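User: Quick sanity check before I run a bigger batch. Here is a single chain. Can you write out its predicted 3D structure?
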Amino acid sequence: MVDFESGEPLPFATATANELKIHSIVNEKGYFLFPKVNAGMVSVTIELIGFEGLTVEVFILPDSSHELTFALHRMEVALPEAKIVGEKYVSSRLSPAGYKRFDLDALQYTPAGVMADPLRILYTLPGVASTGDINTKFFVRGGSNDQNLILLENIPIYNPFRSLGLFSTIDQDVVSALEIYRGGFGAKY
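Assistant: Done. Predicted structure follows.
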């Protein structure tokens, strides 16, 4: 089984001995086999997607094997026009790059010194670095600690770092979630 134009084998074509209802699949080298076919005239149909089907009458001699070469012609398949109608789907589950949200459950397991500090969970993220263990100042992606905007209920907090080095200025019991944008933040920030 070969391509008429290139002479290359056509694997995975279907060969059918019509009267006997025997099917065979062409292998990678272009061969197929009908085992135990009786002598006489047999109608063989060969089909492959993208090629014109071929039906050939073959006379089988008793106690013999035949090697025949079939060539299939390529066939162009005209498909109807496809129209794509719809709107762009924007998933609400996708978050912008660099965005991370910590819920109350995650905040409860924050590393704590004398008093729990919700800002300490930020040190677990890539791109966020601490200035030390005593205070909670941090750097985000190479910036300085005074370049971080920290909001509590959309009100800016200008120095939310540890008071006297021991106590957090933000009580963990009043925080239900913590969001951080490490990059790609909106123009309103």
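The chain is about 0% helix and 25% strand.

User: Great, the batch can go ahead then.
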